[in-house]
Amino acid sequence: MKEQDYIYSPERKARTHGVVVLIVKYVDGGVQVLYGSQLFNNRRGESGEGSLVGEAREGRETKKQTLERGLREELGLENLGKVVIPVNLRDAWVGSTRFLPGVNAQVFCLQWRGQSGEVPVREVPNGEQTANDFIAGGWQSLKELPELAGLRQGMKNVAESILANPGVIKRIERIAKG
Questions:
Q1: What is the value of pTM for the model shown?
Q2: CATH class of domain segment(s) 7-177
Q3: Per-domain residue ranges of the chain
C-alpha cells in the first residue's frame, strides 16, 4: 500500500466543521509546533487548556477565510506576515479528521518565519484571559504533542491522527523546512 501524505478520517455525519492550524518550524533536526493555552466554552465536554490554533467555521466561510480569521483572532494581525499562507491551500492542507464526536477539522500546516526563539504574542484585553483567548505558550516537538500536559482532547485527536501516518509527518517536515 502506498504511503499517504495526508490524513483522511472525518466523521460522516459531522454537525460542525472547523480548521486546526499547525504553525511549524524546523529546529535541531525536528519539527516544532506552536502551542498555547485557551480558556474555552466547554459545550462539548472537553477538558484541558492546552491548544493549537483552531477555529470553527462561521456561516458560509470558506476554509481559507476560517483559517485567516483564526490566525487574526488567535495570534493577532501583526503576526500574519510571519507565517506562510499559500495562495492555494492545497499546499498547506494535511487532511481532514474527526476532532470530537460530531465535529470535523480540516488540518493545515504553515511555516513560521519569525525569529527562532520568538513566540507570537497577542495582547489580551485588560490583561485577563477570557473564553476563547488563545495565548501562545511556546514550541513543542511534533512527536511529543499528544503528551503535552492539559492538551484539549480534540487537539490531541488531531495530533494522534497525524502521528499515525509517516507520510504526513514527512510532509509536515518539508513545510517546516521551507
A1: 0.81
A2: alpha beta
A3: 7-177
